[in-house]
Design a protein that fits this description.
By secondary structure, the protein is an alpha/beta fold. It has helices at 11-29, 36-50, 56-73, 79-95, 99-125, 137-141, 148-156, 160-168, 174-180, 200-211, 234-245, 262-265, 274-285, 303-309, 338-346, 365-376, 397-405, and strands spanning 226-230, 249-254, 290-293, 312-315, 321-322, 335-337, 357-361, 381-385, 409-411, 414-421, 427-437, 447-449, 455-458, 461-464, 468-469. The protein folds into four domains: 11-125, NADH-ubiquinone oxidoreductase 51kDa subunit, iron-sulphur binding domain (de novo design (two linked rop proteins)), CATH 1.20.1440; 137-211, Alpha-helical ferredoxin (Fumarate Reductase Iron-sulfur Protein, Chain B, domain 2, Orthogonal Bundle); 226-315, FAD/NAD(P)-binding domain (3-Layer(bba) Sandwich), CATH 3.50.50.60; 322-469, FAD/NAD(P)-binding domain, CATH 3.50.50.60. The protein has 17 helices and 15 strands.
Length: 470
């Protein structure tokens, strides 16, 4: 009779796993100027040197990976080599007997996923995309390219107003970003190699809240040029601000009654207080910008008329349309978009969620925003349905934790299957199919149908938050 054996990780295994986790942090925190293929090859060589030789995937497979990576670096490879490297690494990942093999292979997979363009550039032109310059990691990953080390140094010296002035050189909406920015800069912070990233967004907020009133710079001499901005969201407002400071006459045309775009109509006030948003918009407009609200270009004024009156037109209309989702039994009007709910809430239009059961489909920040807004509108129960695991959600971790703290149920690994209606053709439930974690081709696994019955979720209002478009 067979006996049950429980095998725990030995000390050597745990040490190797910790070593690879440390190396993984170093890869993430490494400056963009370093060659990612060379870096990956070095780590695979280290793993190969540690191999005990008892399993073929580790000893032989890692050796083959090293040869192919060297071919890429030495311009001996073809584009098809990338697929062969990926296929080999995946085979090692699933068949190696210990962490030395599968962790080394996983690094190769992550390297190809994140730096495929670098692989292609090496093969086609024999060079890295990033060149030899050593970009500052946090600055290079900031969408606005803000001088993060610069303003942190100013904060250290207590020069909070100067820190705000420095940030405004690249981003005029300082307080707004200090509250809602997803801080990608922190993912590449070099401090991750020691413990955790510097709280960059928190430092920005500290500077804003201690700087007091910081006037904008003086405008440059007038150029006599006129620029029309279509849309008053973050892009339109930022463009208007910098163009006005350059000395151009700027006019904004906005179809809604208030300025802010998705900052106002897509982000709830509990995350971005409206008095803060209004104050930042007021500061931007103080550069001498004219505003026309309630104007739809193409209806109230044509593009041809704008071309005749202005020297340039900047189009910043934003992504205000929702992506559709196909569910069995769903008809036109059955599903409400998250963007529509958030817009109605901001415009103070009536939304009847009192004592109703709400189901939200999606796993991003907008899904969390509309779910938490539903709670504030008096919903009896709110359920978020997501096809992957909770850990795979694209929403910020603090938003997911906030939703759970407010009593919202996260039903992960569930795919919408069909809509159930009553005799009056009203939605009464959403049926979902349970999922299993499938193969991991990227950082997030692809879900697969589980062999189990569909689950019924009572539902009065079905909301989708699965992406936006123009």
């Amino acid at each position: 009779m067979s006996r049950l054996s429980i095998i725990t990780s030995n000390r050597a295994q745990e040490t190797v796993e910790r070593l690879y986790k440390d190396l993984e942090r170093r890869i993430v925190s490494s400056p963009p100027g370093l060659c990612p293929i060379d870096l990956t090859s070095s780590f695979v060589k280290m793993g190969h040197a540690q191999s005990c030789g008892k399993c073929v995937p580790c000893r032989i497979g890692l050796g083959q990976l090293i040869n192919m990576l060297e071919d890429v670096l030495d311009e001996r490879a073809e584009l098809s080599t990338i697929d062969l490297i990926e296929k080999t690494a995946r085979a090692i990942y699933y068949s190696a007997d210990c962490a030395i093999g599968y962790e080394a292979a996983n690094m190769v997979l992550k390297g190809i996923e994140g730096f495929r363009e670098d692989f292609e550039e090496h093969i086609l032109r024999g060079r890295c995309i990033g060149g030899l310059e050593q970009a500052i990691p946090c600055v290079s990953t900031c969408p606005a390219g803000v001088d993060i080390p610069g303003y942190i140094a100013l904060i250290k010296e207590g020069r909070y107003a100067d820190a705000i002035r420095l940030i405004r050189k690249d981003n005029p909406m300082v307080y707004t970003c200090a509250l809602i920015c997803e801080h990608p800069c922190e993912t590449r912070c070099r401090r991750n190699m020691v413990d955790n990233a510097v709280n960059i967004r928190g430092l920005k907020r500290y500077a804003v809240e201690n700087a007091g009133e910081v006037p904008i710079p003086e405008r440059a001499p007038l150029t006599g040029k006129k620029v029309a901005i279509i849309g008053a969201g973050p892009s339109g407002l930022s463009a208007a601000y910098y163009l006005a400071l350059m000395g151009h006459d700027v006019e904004i045309f906005e179809q809604r009654k208030q300025l802010g775009g998705m900052l106002r109509y897509g982000i709830p006030s509990y995350r971005l207080p409206r008095e803060i948003l209004d104050k930042e918009i007021e500061t931007i407009l103080s550069a001498g910008i004219k505003v026309h609200t309630g104007i739809t270009v193409g209806k109230h004024i044509s593009v041809s008329e704008l071309r005749d009156e202005f020297d340039a037109i900047y189009i910043a209309i934003g992504a205000h349309t929702d992506k559709k989702i196909d569910i069995e039994g769903k008809e036109e009007g059955d599903v409400v978009s998250a963007i529509e709910i958030l817009r109605k809430k901001e415009d103070k239009e009536p939304i009847d969620f009192k004592d109703k059961e709400i189901v939200v489909i999606g796993g991003g920040n907008v899904a969390m925003d509309v779910a938490r807004t539903s709670v504030r509108l008096g919903a009896k129960k709110v359920t978020v349905v997501y096809r992957r695991r909770k850990v795979d959600m694209t929403a910020m971790e603090e938003e997911v934790e906030g939703a759970i703290a407010e009593g919202i149920k996260i039903m992960d690994l569930s795919v919408p299957h069909r809509v159930e209606k009553d005799k009056d053709n009203k939605i009464v439930a959403l049926w979902v199919k349970p999922q299993l974690i499938g193969r991991i081709y990227t950082d997030r696994p692809n879900p697969e149908d589980a062999e189990s019955e569909a689950i019924r979720i009572p539902c009065d209002v079905l909301i989708t938050a699965v992406g936006q478009g123009i």
